[in-house]
Amino acid sequence: MIKRAKGVTISQVADAAGVARSSVSRAFTRPGMLLPETVERIMKAAEALGYVPNHTARALSTGRHGNVGLIVPDIANPFFPPLIQAAQLEADRSDFCIFLGNTGESPKQEDKLVGRFAGQVEGLVLASSRLSEDRIRAHAEKLPLVLINRDIAGIPRVLIDSSSGVRQAVEHLAKLGHRRIAYVSGPANSWSNKQRRAAIRSAATPAGIEVDIVAAALPSYESGRNVVQAILSTGATAAVAFDDVTAQGVLAGLSENHVSVPADFSLIGCDDVLGAVTFPALTSVSNRSVEAGRVAVSLLLDMLQSHAIRDVRCVLETHLVLRSTTTAVA
Amino acid sequence: MIKRAKGVTISQVADAAGVARSSVSRAFTRPGMLLPETVERIMKAAEALGYVPNHTARALSTGRHGNVGLIVPDIANPFFPPLIQAAQLEADRSDFCIFLGNTGESPKQEDKLVGRFAGQVEGLVLASSRLSEDRIRAHAEKLPLVLINRDIAGIPRVLIDSSSGVRQAVEHLAKLGHRRIAYVSGPANSWSNKQRRAAIRSAATPAGIEVDIVAAALPSYESGRNVVQAILSTGATAAVAFDDVTAQGVLAGLSENHVSVPADFSLIGCDDVLGAVTFPALTSVSNRSVEAGRVAVSLLLDMLQSHAIRDVRCVLETHLVLRSTTTAVA
DNA sequence: CTGTTAGCGCTTTCAA
DNA sequence: TTGAAAGCGCTAACAG
User: Fold this and answer.
1) Which residues does nucleic strand D approach, with CB less than 7 A?
2) Domain A67-160+289-317 in CATH: superfamily?
3) Annotated Gene Ontology MF terms (chains A, B) (predicted)?
4) Do B99 and A97 touch (CB under 8 A)?
5) What is the mean pLDDT of residues A129-141?
6) How far is C-alpha B161 from the geometric centre of its chain's CA atoms?
7) In chain B, what percentage of residues exceed pLDDT 90?
């Protein structure tokens, strides 16, 4: 059993300094309003007592609690940690704290989290939301919202435009002589997935390439490994995967099937989160998740400050990063 | 510009339902105290008005805000996401929210975060804290604290005991005929690092193995890659790395130096976070981070509930996971 | 079982 | 420049 000091309140400081409670409050929020010597006396007393302003009380009184929420589908997916980190850094710069939520790719859980967070945060960043547009709109009416990788008009959003990179990927494969490729798709509700699939299709036609869509339900290593048979049965000589993690699974599955990469099969990932750590090193579409996290939070804080909501649509371009998993067809 | 609904308060619901404010409060917190029909009437009114209890006001009044903090050194290190996820899941079960903090391996930042969180959370989990024992003790006086991978008497802690696994690793290498091995160490303030280093040393002597310590400042891919020269210059034929990420860097560095694994050199990681995704698949010491996260939060919630602090020391055992990066010396 | 009445700790008019 | 006083929205005795 341990005793824990009950918080020192503003009144105790006021008494100790021989001033009114309001003056103590002012000393901490708008010292300019007080005589420097008064401020100093108050601060001295506060210091001596170990006074720390009570965040909750302040929040109740002002309606501002200096927290923003960040909700992601899967922390364990290497796409998100850098984004989270950047978001946190940006929040920190304005003395905001971040509430992190993980939905496990479940829209239901996401809805629940948004509800749980609302009321404790001033605003929310939804990264790669799997919610329906309706739900997102509904939430946006209740509190300031910024979206990452979700394109909904009227709601501020930052989009990592993988089309540019994906297009380069397809052209690269075309140049290498591939004529039939597979796209290993991601989550159905993922905006990025739709975008990538569309980009592949639109780039493939002029390049004279056939595209087969192979569905991997979740963006995961296992998912990727499980669809290798399906990929091979399409007769494709190359594949682009929804993301690097899926691609890594595909890589493993191919190896298990004695298909060697890139000699027998070319593979390209997306998001470039694995760097050169796979073997062979994975060719991938670059990623801007750090900027995305930073910009999203910064946008959100702007909204909070200006009390207005502009229709921002911030697009971040990408490109193909060549490594060792692609080669010309035999 | 968008108008956002100002919150409906308990008073409005009370008026609408023709009861006192306290009854509304009771309907939400202890419905059992009220007549079922009263509760129903209140709920109906609340529903109609779209009433949602104000978390902040409740927190101010009760002193409990249903949040716990979790601070980790580096979200991007694959050791932590599963831990975070598990912690969040466990918190969720008791309707608690998690504040996540990332310190970037900096004690200073960690101290700052603890301060920022205190006052908004009821308790804190410090995972792999890089703080000095003094600082940790100081914080523990101010609010309920649970430690992960930090062994400080009197503060509840859950420890992943890698000694067992590391010992197996050394014995495994001994059996393969290795006589001189290197330990690629981790962060200086890391309890796990000290534990692993000690376990290696104590297991090596009876096995007739010499150990050289090679310091990698940070647990990262880059760090690992950078110390390969140092490792090779010790004349070791095998190495155990502080963690898998570091090991992966070492693997890359070895390959760049044309040292092939396991033919020319054997390598073992720790934490088993990379699964079989490296090439060759990394032999590693198993990891219990999911349990650690779950147990830590559960311990913390217990403390909050019982208002007492028992001297818990929960130890999770580990073992060696054999894959493909070790073999007998030539 | 339900209403009345104080607060929780801080901010913020309004006066002085 | 400072103090007094009225809340912010909710909970928790204490009566009845």
Assistant:
1) A 18-23, 26, 33-35, 38, 57, 60-61; B 6-7, 9-11, 21-22, 25, 28-29, 51, 53-54, 57-58, 60-62
2) Response regulator (3.40.50.2300)
3) DNA-binding transcription factor activity; transcription cis-regulatory region binding
4) yes
5) 96
6) 14
7) 85
